[in-house]
Design a protein that fits this description.
3-stranded antiparallel sheet; 10 helices; Rossmann fold; 2 domains
Length: about 325
């Protein structure tokens, strides 16, 4: 829970002051009774009453004041609402290491299948675009609500080359910037970047991640693969097996710096689950809703309750 006017909560310091004043008042009444009434007449002049009943109305007043102070600070809570005009750019790594088969049938093919599951679950009104990248990014489909066009574009993926993650994120942000605003506001946007390792070419991906955060475009990174991945590379004398372990550190930093989230998928099933989770996340956004009326209502009920009890038991409000 958060507050729209948190400075109002400073008034809470008045609660212990009121408690101390009330305690002093009670001691003063008791001392006055002892001073002006003979001990033999004390029982008839100032009969003892149950202590809990004497203090209950004031306890209700004190709690009511506390709750009303909280209400005046305008408490808020975060609720999830559907996003109907979001923009998501899928950025798929197609460098040579994505041919590794530690994720069956290969990292790249598993990524294609998981992304297609994402397209089935993301809201139909969301614009989804697709780009692929190795040492250079290539836009295969600009953001569109026709998700079948995006799914068809996946048939063009072929692994090869090095990895330029920073350039891919820059191209994704340019795709998002070309989406027209609605009502003078840019639609909420995000980048889903799937890769298996660190950037080896192009611009600094961490600097680009900071730019994405400044533009309110979180980057959700999906690290696909295991530490044991290998690919076969042709050589002059034949073929050679080269290790291509999945490296998560840089992709996790990208997600953190951009305000997104990092996921790791060491298998095809896990990769599909990650994309389903992302579809649910990106199909909703969290907004703050005031819950002032609830607190104010409870505070007023406690004030009324304290007043009724005080009048019924003692014939006075305080």
């Amino acid at each position: 829970m958060s507050f729209a006017a948190p400075l109002v909560l400073i008034a809470v310091i008045a609660i212990p002051v009121l408690i101390m004043a009330y305690a002093r008042h009670q001691r003063g009444r008791a001392q006055a009774a002892k001073t002006f009434v003979a001990p033999a007449l004390m029982a008839s002049v100032a009969p003892r009453s149950p202590r809990w009943r004497r203090h209950l109305p004031m306890a209700a007043f004190g709690i009511a004041i506390l709750i009303l102070i909280i209400a005046a600070a305008r408490p808020q809570r975060s609720v999830a609402v559907a996003v109907n005009n979001g923009v998501v750019v899928l950025a798929n790594d197609v460098s040579s290491s994505m041919a590794a088969t530690d994720v069956r049938p290969s990292r790249l093919v598993a990524a294609e299948g998981a992304a297609k599951q994402f397209l089935k679950r993301v809201p139909s009104t969301a614009r989804v675009g697709l780009l692929v990248f190795n040492e250079k990014p290539l836009v295969l489909q600009s953001p569109t609500t026709n998700h079948s066009l995006v799914a068809d574009a996946f048939t063009q993926l072929r692994p090869g080359g090095h990895t330029a993650v920073g350039d891919a994120m820059t191209a994704a942000m340019q795709m998002i910037a070309r989406v027209p605003s609605q009502g003078g506001k840019r639609p909420p946007a995000a980048i889903v970047l799937i890769s298996d390792g660190n950037s080896t070419n192009g611009s600094d991906p961490l600097a680009v991640a900071r730019q994405a955060r400044s533009r309110h475009i979180p980057v959700y990174t999906v690290i696909v693969g295991t530490p044991h991945g290998t690919i076969t590379v042709p050589t002059r004398s034949g073929k050679m097996t080269t290790p291509v372990p999945a490296e998560a550190q840089q992709l996790e930093q990208i997600a953190q710096l951009s305000g997104g989230q990092a996921f790791t998928a060491a298998g095809a099933d896990r990769l599909t689950a990650v994309y389903k989770n992302l579809a649910a996340q990106l199909g909703h956004k969290h907004v703050k809703r005031e819950i002032t009326s609830g607190f104010a209502g409870v505070g007023m009920v406690l004030l009324l309750l304290g007043s009724v009890l005080s009048l019924r038991w003692f014939g006075r409000l305080v």
